[in-house]
Each structure stands twice: as structure tokens, then as C-alpha cells.
Design brief:
Strand order of the largest sheet: 10-9-4-6-5-11
Oligomer: single chain
Pfam family, one: RepSA
Protein name: Plasmid replication initiator protein
InterPro entries: RepSA
Number of domains: 3
Helix content: 25-40%
Length: about 425
């Protein structure tokens, strides 16, 4: 991105101003900075850096590093996957056999077949499309997607209460003895609904830096609690003008797999255990994608806009349902800002406060390392790293404005590509 502005150091006692940097001193009068867009389809280089930062954030919470003690790897930790319920049968990819083989070849009330004997490839445009779009509950689909972040919040509360019950403690006593640390990443399915993936770890009350949880809770009890909490949580949506409220729940396919160093790191088989590096790599990969596989950009104005962009009929109908829902009152008015994410309003990745390091700490450490390479060890405790500060009695003041995107001249773009290629090679 192209910026214009300056960075100055101000003497707080005298008011004297010293200009440390100004874009006016550049040959073309612009300061070029990274766009920091996480979407791989928008900026591959920034997306690659974001993916690496996400991998470190997730991995440090599973195996330690960057100041997080390695003892976290010995604590009960499971990889949880929560899915959306079914709102109608859709085409899918099966490991063995055709999509939906049915000997009786049934049809729905609209005369459309409820079976499919085709073996779909992963890139088949028909994957994720409903067998009958009139039978598919698009309103329920959008309502569930809109309320998915609240379902996540209620799940964490229910998990804490269930674990306290299993330990035979009141919730206040449980909090003084145990802390649930987690990270949450969402992944869009082909049918346009999100999966929620969450590494969940049991710590002592002080988090990763303190002693482990003193309660006799095993990984088996943690995973049983995950299944019970996911099944118990529900949310009643606000009643609509033309329909009653929906009772929204998680889907039946709630999965928990033990995270262990003893699991096969490179094994592609699905088992009861998974390696920490597999979890971090899997989740970091999906963070650079959102709905780009559906042909949607970061901003979508309407269902007509989505159709013109080449979105599938299923995606267009989802956005049509979201448009209708946005006119149902103040509770759903903001869904109009989320057409590009098909009604999902949450962040792609969130975490509890003491799960691991933060994106901000990782990025500050990288800036400091690049500015003063010898001053920061790559494995330093980045939670203690402070950004560059002004000397005592002085204050740094930066003021930059956005001017545009992209390079103004072809040779500048070519040099940028050359520098990026050399950086990757070295």
C-alpha cells in the first residue's frame, strides 16, 4: 500500500520537533508498506506471513516456545471440532462409494431425486449444493450462521460448568483450581456453513506459566465433557414476522481428538490422537481462506452482485435469505455487512487470554529483530519484548494517510517481486 506522512520525535519539555522520517524524502513521495491482507487470493506474500504467524501462535499453545513453557505439552489437551446441523441434504465427497446411493430412489415433495450415484471430485462445482433447493432451510441456515459466535460462547461456559460438576466442585471453586485455555478457528464447509476447530487445554489457575491443574481431570474426562457440553448447548433465536423462533444447536458430529507428541506427525490417517504440528498446520492453512472458494470477494453488496461474480446458485440463495433477514429489525440489520462471509460475523481466529502469545507480540518481535538483528534472539520470550520507545523526555509521533494500492511503475513492481523471491530463497 502507498502511504504519505512522517515520523517525528517531540521534546515534551521544549516542544522541539525533529523529523525522523518523511515520505517526502522518497523518490516518488510515497512510503510503501505491506497490505497485511490474510486472504491468499488477494495477496499471496502477506497471506504467507500471516499463516506463519498463526502457526506460531497455535503451536506455542500446544508445545511451548516464544516464552511459553514447554510443560504445556504435558497437560490435558484435545482438538475439538464442532459442526453445524443439517438444513437439508447436499452433494458431498465420500471416501468410499457414490455421493448418496439409495436403492429405493426416493424423490422429495417437489419431485426432485433425493439420491445421487455420482462420485464427486473435490473441485466438482456440485459439491455442497442441495439436492432440492426448495426443501433446503435457507432461513435456518443463515440464522445458525449469524448466531454461531454466541453458540461458541455458550459452549465454553457449559464446558466449564460440566468439568466443575465432574470434579465435584462449585464453579467458583473450579475457577480457583483450573483454567480452560483454548484457541478457536473457523473453516467454511462446501455447503456454506462453518466448522469450529478448537485446541482446548487444561491449565492451573495461573495459566501456562504456573503449575498444572491440581484437579484429577483426565483427557478422557475432558473429551467426554466436550461431547456432553456440545449436545446440551442451544440458543433460541428472536421470533420473526413470518415464522417462529428457531432453536439452534450444534450438529451431531462433535469430534475430540487427543493432542499428543506421540501421535504420528506425518500420518494422514484419522485416529483418536493427533500431533501438535498437524493441528497447527491444519488450522493455519484455513486462516488464509474465507469464502473465496465460493467466488466471493471481501465485499459483497447483494445477491445480484454475488450472481454477477459467478457464485453458485446455493450461495446466491444464502445471500438472498440474509437480505430478507436483515429487514427483520434491529437484531439482524447488521447481517447486511456480512454477505461476503455468508452471515458469519465472528473472527476467523480467537483465543483465550492465556492460551499462547498474540499476533501483536509476534509482529513487534519481528519488527525489532529486523531493525536490530543482534538485539533479539529468535527464541526469545516475545511476551516481554517491548516495541521501540523514545528516549526519556521525548515522544514519538507518527502520522500517515492512505494514498493508494499497488506500484505506480512497472519497474518498481518487478523489483518488489525480485526482492520477495530472493528473500524466500535465502
Amino acid at each position: 500500500m502507498r502511504l504519505q506522512g512522517s515520523k517525528q520525535m517531540v521534546n515534551t519539555a521544549t516542544g522541539e520537533v525533529q523529523t525522523l522520517y518523511s515520505s517526502a524524502g522518497e523518490l516518488d513521495g510515497h512510503t510503501y508498506v505491506r497490505c497485511n491482507n490474510r486472504r491468499a487470493s488477494v495477496c499471496p506474500t502477506c497471506s504467507r506471513e500471516y499463516k506463519g504467524d498463526a502457526w506460531h501462535l497455535l503451536m506455542c499453545g500446544l508445545a511451548g516456545g516464544k516464552g511459553v513453557p514447554e510443560s504445556v505439552a504435558d497437560r490435558p489437551c484435545t482438538f475439538v471440532t464442532l459442526t453445524a446441523p443439517s438444513f437439508g441434504p447436499v452433494h458431498g465427497v465420500r471416501d468410499k462409494g457414490p455421493c448418496r446411493a439409495r436403492r429405493d430412489s426416493p424423490v422429495c415433495a417437489h419431485g426432485r431425486p433425493q439420491w445421487c450415484r455420482k462420485r464427486h471430485a473435490l473441485d466438482d462445482r456440485q459439491v455442497g449444493q442441495p439436492l432440492c433447493w426448495e426443501c433446503y432451510d435457507y432461513l435456518g441456515h443463515v440464522l445458525w450462521q449469524w448466531h454461531a459466535p454466541e453458540l461458541c460462547r455458550r459452549f465454553t461456559i457449559a464446558l466449564q460448568r460440566d468439568l466443575a460438576k465432574r470434579a465435584g466442585l462449585k464453579i467458583t471453586q473450579f475457577r480457583r483450581a483450573c483454567r480452560i485455555s483454548y484457541s478457536k478457528v473457523v473453516e467454511f464447509q462446501a455447503r456454506g456453513l462453518v466448522h469450529v476447530h478448537a485446541p482446548i487445554r487444561l491449565d492451573g489457575p495461573a495459566g501456562p506459566d504456573g503449575p498444572a491443574c491440581s484437579l484429577p481431570l483426565t483427557i478422557a474426562e475432558l473429551e467426554a465433557s466436550v461431547a456432553a457440553s456440545a449436545a446440551a448447548v442451544y440458543l433460541d433465536s428472536t421470533p420473526l414476522r413470518d415464522s417462529a423462533s428457531y432453536r439452534l444447536r450444534w450438529g451431531r458430529q462433535a469430534d475430540a481428538r487427543t493432542i499428543s507428541d506421540g501421535a504420528g506427525r506425518d500420518s494422514g490417517r484419522r485416529g483418536s490422537r493427533v500431533h501438535p504440528e498437524q493441528v497447527a498446520a491444519y488450522l493455519a492453512k484455513y486462516l488464509t481462506k474465507t469464502t473465496e472458494d465460493f467466488g466471493l470477494p471481501s465485499t459483497v453488496g447483494s445477491a445480484v452482485h454475488a450472481r454477477l461474480l459467478g457464485a453458485t446458485p446455493h450461495v446466491v440463495r444464502i445471500i438472498q435469505a440474509a437480505e430478507a433477514l436483515s429487514r427483520e429489525g434491529d437484531d439482524y440489520a447488521r447481517i447486511a455487512d456480512r454477505y461476503s462471509t455468508l452471515g458469519y460475523r465472528g473472527h476467523p481466529i480467537t483465543k483465550s487470554r492465556r492460551y499462547s502469545v498474540t499476533f501483536g507480540q509476534i509482529r513487534r518481535a519481528r519488527r525489532l529483530f529486523r531493525a536490530r538483528t543482534a538485539a533479539l534472539d529468535p527464541d526469545a520470550d516475545i511476551r516481554e519484548v517491548l516495541d521501540e520507545t523514545a528516549p526519556e523526555g521525548f515522544e514519538l509521533v507518527s502520522s500517515f494517510v492512505y494514498v493508494g494500492r499497488g506500484y505506480l511503475q512497472l519497474d518498481q513492481a518487478a523489483e518488489a517481486v525480485r526482492s520477495a523471491a530472493m528473500a524466500r530463497a535465502n
